[in-house]
């Protein structure tokens, strides 16, 4: 660097260069961390959205099967039993969902027992 008198003045690399290197490094690290956090949030958002969609579809299948389970058409009721068994085997459902399915089966078994008892008493009378 030249002064007004034409003298060469050495540039002080120690503080200026170090400040620039430190600043650049910090900016680079912040940028990399920002990208990593954004990628993680994107994955989390997609996973949550997929779980919500799966849960909604699970519920729609459950309500259909619960309604069809008591259908007078035996083939439909058999399909409903199969669907409920499959829904109970889904690994991400919680214990309350499984209990709900088992309770539906308990109601069905109670109805079958009542029908058998009524049929038995009608046949004896």
Task: Estimate the strand proportion.
Answer: under 5%
Protein structure class: mainly alpha
Rg (CA only): 35 Å
What is the average per-residue confidence, as pLDDT, rounded to a whole number?
A: 85
Index terms:
mainly alpha; 125 residues; single chain
Report what the structure shows.
- With 125 residues, this protein is mainly α.
- Helices cover 82% and strands 0% of the residues.
- The protein is built from three helices and no strands.
- The chain has helices at 13-69, 74-88, 95-124.
Short structural summary:
The protein contains three helices and no strands. The chain is an all-alpha fold and 125 residues long.
Helix-strand layout with pairing:
Elements: H1 13-69, H2 74-88, H3 95-124
